[in-house]
Write a structure and sequence with these properties.
TIM Barrel; 4-stranded mixed sheet; 11 helices; 27% helix
């Protein structure tokens, strides 16, 4: 007799998947911790864990004893809360004060305006706050000129100042270092003694780490499969705007992943995928959900595995090399990996 429930026990086979290496991620975290023995590493999990999957990354790193997971939004913090992640969460981005009035929240907050600080004091009493100082990036943060008045008011509020933070515009900028030291003196002058000073590069004890955590040794591999293999004739043109013209009779492959899925449009006619350890050129425009490749140098068939982004940094299709081809930064390639693509921890 056929078991009617048997069908539901079977799993669909995903055409595309993103593999996350537990071993590589933990090795990267350990490496960063050893290099900076006096500085605690706080992983940055914003933007879906830099495309790796916020819950997948948090699940792997939840036992390492980091001071915080750093996220951008209340939404991301709640995702971790619902997943029962035990590591404390620091929300670095702006939170609409109205959302702080609904119920008690178990998170810490970067604070750079008094309206938010006042709402935290009233509706989230004794919430952990990290004073965010703008030291020269001219992005979010309190300027040095406004910091004394800010601290004077903050002193009267019912919050727990547990951190002082800033953001470097790039490299070790002497002006930013000088301003951060001035901010430290002001914070101390007003009677605050925050436990966490970050960035760690400026006499601090905590470092918020993003890209190095994921690319010191690449953690991610993006895999698809050939959906069609066929011949085109010399002179045939491929893709939107017909930007590729076959110089000879050619065997091509269709991959069911495009720029929606994270195959960057800048790889059109320039990038590579890897099939059976052979690099196959991307030909024609990358479409929204499909990419065409030249299979002339390989004997391939429908269903064969395609490595779109390799976890070998030397490969032509590694994240960093793909970013160079597209003239972009690796962050942009990573965060455009579709959240709907299945992540698998290996």
């Amino acid at each position: 007799m056929i078991n009617p429930l048997g069908f539901f026990k079977k799993e669909y086979q995903a055409l595309n998947r993103i593999e996350i290496s537990r071993k590589s991620l933990l090795q990267n975290y350990k490496f960063l911790s050893v290099v900076n023995r006096k500085i605690k590493i706080a992983p940055v999990l914003k933007s879906n864990g830099y495309g790796h999957g916020i819950l997948e990354v948090a699940g792997i790193l939840d036992e390492v004893g980091t001071p915080f997971f750093c996220v951008d939004s209340l939404y991301e913090a709640y995702e971790l809360f619902k997943a029962e992640i035990k590591t404390p969460v620091l929300i670095m981005g702006y939170t609409n004060p109205a959302n702080l009035k609904i119920k008690k929240l178990p998170f810490s907050f970067a604070v750079f305006d008094l309206d938010t600080a006042r709402v935290l004091s009233k509706f989230q009493p004794q919430a952990g706050v990290h004073i965010f100082v703008d030291t020269g990036m001219s992005r979010e943060g309190i300027t040095l000129e406004d910091l004394p008045d800010f601290l004077k008011t903050l002193k009267k509020l019912n919050v727990k100042v547990e951190g002082l933070m800033s953001h470097l515009a790039g490299g070790m900028n002497n002006l930013q270092i000088q301003r951060f030291h001035q901010a430290q003196k002001l914070v101390k002058k007003f009677g605050f003694n925050p436990k966490w000073i970050h960035p760690g590069a400026i006499n601090g004890n905590m470092a918020r780490v993003g890209l190095k955590l994921y690319l010191q040794k690449p953690v991610l591999k993006f895999i698809s499969h050939l959906a069609q293999v066929k011949k085109i004739k010399k002179g045939d043109k491929v893709g939107y705007d017909r930007t590729y013209k076959a110089k000879k009779d050619t065997i091509i492959g269709i991959i069911p992943a495009g720029y929606y899925d994270g195959v960057d449009w800048g790889l059109s006619n320039k990038g590579f995928v890897k099939i059976k350890n052979i690099f196959c050129p991307i030909i024609g425009r990358v479409s929204m959900n499909m990419t065409t490749v030249d299979l002339s140098n390989i004997n391939a068939k429908v269903g064969d595995e395609v490595v779109i982004y390799s976890d070998n940094p030397r490969d032509k299709n590694s994240i960093e090399n793909a970013a160079k081809i597209c003239q972009k930064i690796p962050y942009e390639i990573l965060v455009h990996l579709a959240q709907s693509t299945k992540r698998v921890i290996t």
